[in-house]
Amino acid sequence: MGTTGLWLIGARGSVATTAITGLLALRSKAVPATACVSAQPEFADLGLPDWDEIQVGGHDIADISLDKRAELLSEAGVIPHRLLDAARPALSEVDTEIRPGYHPATHSGSQADAARRLADDIGSFAERHGLEQVVVVNVSSTEPVFPGLPEHGALKALEAAMAVPGRTVLPPSSVAAYAAMRADCPFVDFTPSLGIRLPALEELARRQRLPYAGSDGKTGETLVRSVLAPMFASRSLDVRSWAGTNLLGGGDGLTLADAEHAGSKLESKGRGLATLLGSEVTAPLHIDNVPDLGEQKIAWDHVSFEGFLGVRMSLQFTWSGYDSTLAAPLVLDLARFVAKAHEAGQSGPLGSLAFFFKDPVGSREHRLAEQYAALRDWAGTL
Amino acid sequence: MGTTGLWLIGARGSVATTAITGLLALRSKAVPATACVSAQPEFADLGLPDWDEIQVGGHDIADISLDKRAELLSEAGVIPHRLLDAARPALSEVDTEIRPGYHPATHSGSQADAARRLADDIGSFAERHGLEQVVVVNVSSTEPVFPGLPEHGALKALEAAMAVPGRTVLPPSSVAAYAAMRADCPFVDFTPSLGIRLPALEELARRQRLPYAGSDGKTGETLVRSVLAPMFASRSLDVRSWAGTNLLGGGDGLTLADAEHAGSKLESKGRGLATLLGSEVTAPLHIDNVPDLGEQKIAWDHVSFEGFLGVRMSLQFTWSGYDSTLAAPLVLDLARFVAKAHEAGQSGPLGSLAFFFKDPVGSREHRLAEQYAALRDWAGTL
Amino acid sequence: MGTTGLWLIGARGSVATTAITGLLALRSKAVPATACVSAQPEFADLGLPDWDEIQVGGHDIADISLDKRAELLSEAGVIPHRLLDAARPALSEVDTEIRPGYHPATHSGSQADAARRLADDIGSFAERHGLEQVVVVNVSSTEPVFPGLPEHGALKALEAAMAVPGRTVLPPSSVAAYAAMRADCPFVDFTPSLGIRLPALEELARRQRLPYAGSDGKTGETLVRSVLAPMFASRSLDVRSWAGTNLLGGGDGLTLADAEHAGSKLESKGRGLATLLGSEVTAPLHIDNVPDLGEQKIAWDHVSFEGFLGVRMSLQFTWSGYDSTLAAPLVLDLARFVAKAHEAGQSGPLGSLAFFFKDPVGSREHRLAEQYAALRDWAGTL
Amino acid sequence: MGTTGLWLIGARGSVATTAITGLLALRSKAVPATACVSAQPEFADLGLPDWDEIQVGGHDIADISLDKRAELLSEAGVIPHRLLDAARPALSEVDTEIRPGYHPATHSGSQADAARRLADDIGSFAERHGLEQVVVVNVSSTEPVFPGLPEHGALKALEAAMAVPGRTVLPPSSVAAYAAMRADCPFVDFTPSLGIRLPALEELARRQRLPYAGSDGKTGETLVRSVLAPMFASRSLDVRSWAGTNLLGGGDGLTLADAEHAGSKLESKGRGLATLLGSEVTAPLHIDNVPDLGEQKIAWDHVSFEGFLGVRMSLQFTWSGYDSTLAAPLVLDLARFVAKAHEAGQSGPLGSLAFFFKDPVGSREHRLAEQYAALRDWAGTL
Fold it and tell me: Is cis: bond before D241, omega within 30 of 0?
C-alpha cells in the first residue's frame, strides 16, 4: 500500500501519545511488535501499511506538547526512558500536524462550521503528505451520555440542525465522525462515546461508501471476561453473579468515575456480559478514581457460579495493567486493518473487527475466540 | 439408544460417588443438569443415552460403602443433604454392582489372571442387565509414574509378560484398560495415569475396533488456563511467567502432593501451557496437601506478561472449587458421548473429546473454545 | 454471677439466631468456644456469666420463628446440621420470650408509649426469670441515617417531644436504647445505627449510672484493616489509596447496598481508616447486594503504598466470611463483659470494649492489638 | 553523636546499593524519609546519627561497580531515575571504600587469616574517617545451611580450628561476624545465614561487650503475617492452614529457590508462624525463582480458619513489593539504632529490635504491634 494517514481525535492524550511514540519505535526497530495483533504471521501477506507507511496527525483541545505528555507517560511507566529520548525529535514533528479540536464550550458559530473546519484540517493533511487515504480514530476522553434527538434520525434533518448557529445537536465525537466522512475518511471509535452510532451518520457512511468500526476498545477487564464467560457457558456452569471493581488513576479515572460519564462505559461493559452468558446476572460494576495509581488500571472481578448438584464455587481475578499500553497497539492495528478494508472497497460497519471492541458495531459476537476466528477469516478475504 | 453400562474404576471414590448420586438425582429430576455439557440443547437430537438408560457398576479396592462415602461428601459440601437422603436406597443397589479392584500389592498370580477376572466382572454386569454396551471410565487415584518397559511396545510381547506369575508389567490403570478392551468395552481415562497410552494397548484398541478417550479430566486451574492463554496469544501479549499453586485436601491432596505421584499430574499440566502459549515459559507449579480443605481445591495463578513497548503487566486468579463437583458431570458426559461414538462405529482415540481433558489423546488442540467447536462439529457427524 | 439476661433487639435476625443457637450448643458442650474472646484463658477467673447462666429474650418486628430462621441459616452454611437438630426444642422455648419490636410504620401513639411498652417487656422478662440484670444488645438491621434534631440535645426536651402522639423524634434503635435504660439495663449497639449516641441519651445513661458500649461490630474487612493499617504506619510506609469492595447477600446486602442506608456503615468504616493511618487517603468503598451469596460476605481491599525512595507497591486481600458467624460470638462476649462491668458498678461508655467495634464509643483507639491490650488491662481491674 | 561507620557485607548487592543511594538522597533532602522507622517523631530526640553522620564502606566478592548496580536497580524500578543521576559521583566515592569479601572458594590460607584481613579492612576504614564506631551489617546472599560442628561450642576451640590452613569451620557470614567483633564492632545479621548464632561467637560478643542484632529482615510476607496471625489469635479464630507461595526474580530468586538454600529461609519463616498462632498448622511454603519479575517479589498467602460453630472461612492476600526497597531503609534504621545502643553501652543480643526480623535473636515475640511497642520502650531508655 502507499502511504496511509492516521488522524487521531485526542491526539495529545495518553493513548494517542503512546501509539505515536510506539509507532516511531517500531519504525526504527527499537522494539518488537509485542501486542500488535496486525503484526502476527497470519496477517503478513495481507499488504497492510508498514510502520513507516503511516503518517500521523490529529485534533486535540489540549495544548500540552506531545513531548511533554510522553515524558509524563515515561514517568508513569508507560514509555521506557530509552524510547522517549530517541523519539523526541520525531514527536515534535508530529506535533506540528495537530490542529485544535472541537469543543462546544469554546466554539462559536454552527456545528456545520465546526465540522467543515475539521474536515478541511484532515484534507490539508492528506494533501500535504500525498496520502492515498486517512483513517480517523477517536481516542479522546469518554463523553457524558448525549440525549437522543429527532434530528439524529436522518441525514438531511441533521444537517439542517447543524447549520443553526449556536445549536448543539451532536456531541464532539459525532461531529468528528461527521467531519471524517465529509473528508472521505473511514472512522473508528475507540471510545464508548456516541460517535457514528446515529441513523443519520450511518446513512452518511452508506452514501460515501465508507467503512467504519467501533466502539470502545476492549483492553482489560472486559477482555478477560470475553474468554471466561464463554468458558462457564460451554461447561454449562451456571454463573449467578459477576461483580467488578475498577480502580483507575489518570484523567480517565476522573472522567469515568463521574457518575454521568461512567454511564456510557458501564452500559457497554454490562451489555457484553449478559450476551456472553446467555442471560442476565447480578453484575454490580464500579469505576473508582484513584489518582495515585497514575496510568495503572486495576480490576478485580468476583464470579460466583453453581456447578453439579447446585454446589457453589467461585473464581476471582485481579488484572493489573496500563490502559494506554493496552490501547495503543490496538489503535495501530485498527488503522492498518481499516485502511486495508477501505482500499479493498468495503463499506459500512466492519463487524469482523469485533475482536477489538467492548461494544462492537456490526456484530453480536462477544466471545473473544470466535471474534479472533472471524478476524482471521475476514482478513483472508481482503 | 438402549441401556448403556457405565463401569467405573475407582467406583467408591469421591468423583464416582458424586457422579452416581448425581445420576440418581438427575433421573428423578430433583436437580437441573447444571454442568452437564451433554445436556446442552446442541446435543439434544443426538440420541445420547438418557439418565435412566445408564446402569452403573465398577471396581474398587476400597470397601467403604457408597452410602458412607456419599455421607462424607455431603458433610464436605459436595452433595446437598436433601439429595443424599433421597439417594440412599438406590446407592445401596449400585453398591451391589461393585467388585474388588486390582492392586498389585494384594494380588497373587499373573496380571493376565487379574485382567481376565476384571473382564469377567464387566461381562457379567453387561449380561445381568442386558446392556448393549458398557463404557469403562477410570476415576481412581492418580498412580505414581510407571517406568517404560520394552514389553509395552507390542501387544504380543505385553501379553507374554503379563502371563508371568508375579510380574508387574503394567500399572493398575493399564490393567484396567486392557481388561476393558478384552471385555469389548470403550475405555476413558479421567486420570493422568498411564492407562491406555502404550503402543501395545493402542494396538489392542485398533484390533478390537474400540474407541477410547483421555486423559486427565480438565476440571479447574487448567480449564481456566485453556481460555486465558489463548487470550494472551491472540492479542500478541508476551507471557513471561505463569506460576501456579494448588491447595488440595482429601485423598487427592495426599496422593498428588507426594512428589512422585505429582510427577504425572504436573507434567500433564505443563505440557498444555507451553502448547497454548506457543513457547516455553517459566512456569513453577505446586500441589500442596492441605487436609483441612477437605474436598475443596484452591488454585492461585500469577501471570506476568509484557505488552506494547515491553511494559510489564500481570493477571492473577484464584479458583475455588470442589474437585468432585467439577469432575462428576464430565464423567457422565463422557460415558454418553463415548457410548454414542461406539454405537456409531468409531474407533481409536477420540480427539474430538479433547474439550474434557488436560492431556488429550488424539488431539494437539488445548484451546478450550476450539475444543468446544470441535466437539460440536464431531457431534454433528454422529 | 447469678443468672444474666441477654435481650436482643432483632432477636429473629441472622446474627441473633446464630448467637442463640450457638449459646445452646456451647451449653451442651457440643462445640468448643471457637471465636469466643471471653472464653480465652485470660478471662477465665473474671467470674463472667457461664453459658448456662445466660437467659435469652428479645424484640423483633419480624414473625418468622427462630426455628425456621435457624433452618435457613443451616442451609446457608452458618449453622451445622447436627447442631440445628439438637437445638430445635430449646429454640422454640426462646421463641416464646420474643416480643413484637417497635417500628414507626406500624405504631400509633407516641414514642413515649412505645418506649414504655418495650421497657415493660424487658422488665417482665427479668422478673419472670429472676434475673439480676439484663444486657440489651441491638442486632437489628442497619437504619437509614436519622437527621439531627434540637430535641436530641437534652433529656428533658427529648422526653417532651417523645410524648407528642404521632411524632417520630427518634429512630427505632434510639427508642430501644431509651427503653433499655428506662428498664435499668446496660445497652450495647452492635449496629451502626444511631442508638444511644445522642447527648440526651448519654445524659440518661449517666443519671441511671448505666454502662453502654458500641457501635458497629467489627467482624470482617474492618477487622483486617485494623491490623494492616497500623502495620503500614509503624513501618512508615506511606499508604496512598485503600479501595474496598464488599459483596453481601442476605437481608444485609439489600439493606446496606441501598445508598441511604449504606451512608451510616460507610461512614463508620471510613472514620476508622483515617484514624489508623494518621491522615486522609483516597478510600473508595462500595457495598453491593449480591443475593446469590446468601449469608456470605466477600471483601476485596486494594492498598497502594509508597516505600523507600517513593517506590510504589501494593497489598490486596480477599476476605471470605459469614457475617453472622463472625458477629454472633462477639454478641455473646459483649453480653458477658458488659454484665460484669455493670455488676462491678461501671457506668458510661465502655471504651475498653473498642476491640469489638468499628466505631467505638469512649475510645479513639482503632488499632486492634492496642484494643486487645486495653481489653485485657480493663478486665484485670474488674 | 559523632560520625558513625556503616560497614556492609555484600556492599555491591541490591539491598546495599539501594541503602547507599537512598542514604545519599536523604542527605541531600531529595526524598522524604518514607519507610525509615528511625525517622519517626518518636525517635527524634534520641540522638541517633544523622544521615550525613553515616559513612559507608563494606566487603563484597562481586566486582560490579555500585554505579552499574544502581543503574540496573533503576531499570528494575527500585531507584528513580532522577535520584540515580544525582547520586553517581557520590556512589563512585563509596565504591572506593569497598574491599574484596571472603569466600572459601577463592581463599587460600586459614579462616583465621581471612578474618584478620577482614577486621583490618574495617579498622583502616574507621581510622581513615575518624569514626567513633562502625556497625557491621550483613546483607549478602543467603547461604546454604552450614552443618553444626563441635568447635562451634566454645571460642577457644573455634579459634584453634580457624587457625588450621584450608579448614572451613565457619560459613562466610560467621567469619564476617567474627571479624566484626575482632574489630570491636557491633554486628547485625539481616540475612537468615548462620552469622553470629553460635555459642562460640556469642561468647566473643559477651567478652567484647558488643551488642548484636538479627536475623533475617522482616520485609514482606512475614511482615503481613506478623499482624494477621495475632488478629486471628486475639479473636480466638482457629487457623487450620496457612499456605504461602513466593515468586522472586533477581539473584535472590535463584539463591532461595534452590532447595538447600531455601532451607534456612523457609525454616525461619515457619518458626514465626507457629509461635504467632500458638500451635502448629499445616503451612506449606514455596519460594520460586521467576527471573522475569526482576527485583519484584510477589507473595500469595491463603489462610483457612474456623469460626463460631466450626464454620470454615478464608483470607487470602497478595503482596507485591520490591525486596530491596523494603529492606534498604531497615538497614539504615538498624545501623542508627545499633550505633546508639553501642554508644549507650548495651551489649549482647538486642531483643528489642525484634520488630525488624523474621527470626529475632534475644526475643520470642513475633507479633508486630508488640515488637513495635518494645522498640519504643527500649528507645526511651537509651
Answer: no
For range D203-212, the mean pLDDT: 97
With CA atoms as reference, the chain C residue closest to A287 would be C284
Q: Considering only the beta carbons, identify the residue of A289, A290, A300 that sits closest to C245.
A: A300
Degrees, nearest 5: CA angle B197-B203-B204? 95
Cα(A276)–Cα(D21) distance, rounded to whole angstroms? 52
The three-state secondary structure class of C188 is: strand
User: Strands C238-248 and C296-306: what pairing?
Assistant: antiparallel
- Work out how many CB contacts closer than 8 A connect B with C: 3
Chain B residues with beta carbon closer than 8 angstroms to that of A317: 315-318
Which three-class secondary structure state does DSSP give residue C200?
Answer: helix
- Give the mutation candidate from D24, D75, D308 for the C interface (greatest C CB count, under 10 A): D308
> Could C240 and A304 be called an inter-chain contact, meaning their C-beta atoms sit closer than 8 Å?
no
Of A268-282, C262-276, C368-382, least confident by mean pLDDT is C262-276
- Closest chain C residue to D329, measured at CA: C308
Q: Is residue D240 helix, strand or coil?
A: strand
Question: pLDDT tens digit string along B256-307?
Answer: 666 556 666 676 666 778 889 988 899 999 999 999 999 999 999 999 999 9
Residues of B with CB under 8 A from a CB of C: 77, 81, 318
Q: Measure CA of the first residue to CA of the last residue in chain D; give whole Å.
A: 13
Delineate the domains of chain A, giving CATH numbers in brackets: 4-216+325-381 (3.40.50.720), 221-321 (3.30.360.10)
**Chains meeting A at 3+ CB pairs closer than 8 A?**
B, C, D
pTM of the model: 0.95
> Which residues on chain C are in Cβ contact (under 8 Å) with D311?
77-78, 80, 322, 325
Which residues of chain A have a Cβ shorter than 8 Å from any chain C Cβ? 240-241, 243, 245, 247, 282, 284, 286, 288-293, 298, 300, 302, 304, 312, 316, 318
Q: Label the pairing between strands A296-306 and A312-322.
A: antiparallel
Under DSSP, the state recorded for D239 is E
Q: Cβ atoms within 10 A of the Cβ of C50, count?
A: 13
Residues of A in contact with C293 (CB under 8 A): 241, 304
**What is the C-alpha to C-alpha distance for residues B131 and B58, in angstroms, rounded to an integer?**
14
**Which among D200, D195, D202, D215 has a CA at the least distance from the CA of D359?**
D215
Cis-peptide into A241, omega within 30 deg: no
ω into residue B215 within 30 of 0, thus cis? yes
Per-residue pLDDT, averaged over B243-253, amounts to 84
Average pLDDT on D173-186 reads: 98
The interface predicted TM-score of the complex, written ipTM, equals 0.96
pLDDT, tens digit, for every residue of B94-116?
Answer: 999 999 999 988 888 999 999 99
Contact A284 C291 (CB under 8 A): no
Q: How confident is the model at residue D272 (pLDDT cuts 50, 70, 90)?
A: confident
Tell me how close the Cα of B306 comes to any Cα of chain A, in angstroms: 8
Query: Best residue in A37, A235, A368 to probe B by mutation, most B CBs within 10 Å?
Result: A235
Question: Residue C277 carries which side chain, given as an amino acid letter?
Answer: L
Cβ atoms of A319 and B232 within 8 Å: the answer is no
- Three-state SS annotation for A47-96: CCCCHHHEEEEEEECCCCCHHHHHHHHHHCCCCCHHHHHHHHHHHHHHHC
For residue A118, count CB atoms less than 10 angstroms from its CB and return exposed for 0-12, middle for 13-18, buried for 19 or more: buried
Question: The cell 462491668 sits on which residue?
Answer: C341
Pick from C311, C317, C328: CB nearest D308: C328
Question: How many angstroms from the chain centroid is the CA of residue A69?
Answer: 19
Closest CA to A338 of A350, A328, A330, A356: A350
Give the residue from chain A lying closest to D80, CA to CA. A75
- Quote the pLDDT of residue B249: 86
Instruction: Using alpha carbons only, give the angle D331, D337, D338 rounded to the nearest 5 degrees.
Output: 85
Q: Select from C35, C83, C308 the Cβ nearest to the Cβ of D307.
A: C35
